[in-house]
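Subject: Sanity check before I submit

Could someone independently write out the structure tokens for this chain? I want to compare against mine line by line before I put it in a report. The sequence has 180 residues.
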Amino acid sequence: MMYDEETIRDAQAGLPGAMDALLDAWLPVVMGWCLRLGASRVDAEDLTHEVFLIVFRKVQGLREPRAFPAWLYGITRRVLAAHRRKAWFRRWLPGLEPAAVDPNPTPLDAAQTSDVGRQVWEALDMLPEKHREVLILCDLEERADSEVAAMLGVPKGTVKSRLRRARASLRELVPELAAD
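---
Independent answer below. Compare away.
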């Protein structure tokens, strides 16, 4: 993904319109991360909003604008992890109902309800987080392994081995994928 370091510097300086430009450029990316990495019961819009509240509060502290994608992804990971911890805890509290089903499904909802689509989403939910995020970043978002390594703060070889394991696990969990 291409981005303008100057926009990030402008946002850090508090120039008018810079935060809007940053939001316009990165909102779809963060929303995609939240949708794909957040599991099936996540409200991606709320989590994306939470991520950008943090970004707007802390962007001045970012030392190197070139590191913005990795910094933003780190914030997104932490927000998602906090949400998962809360959801896990709420699941065990008596009397709490799961979130209501949306009466106006999106195309993503339709894909999730198809048989293989449902199996893939369930399988993604079952993968360890470190494997799921590498699979999503590399295969779904088509990011280079070197970019993913920088975003996650791990060596490139670690990304490759996690990706290999994630793909193998996904094929085991959804046999229909092995036929393709």
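---
OP: Matches mine. For the report I'm noting this point. Confidence is low (pLDDT under 50) at residues 92-99.
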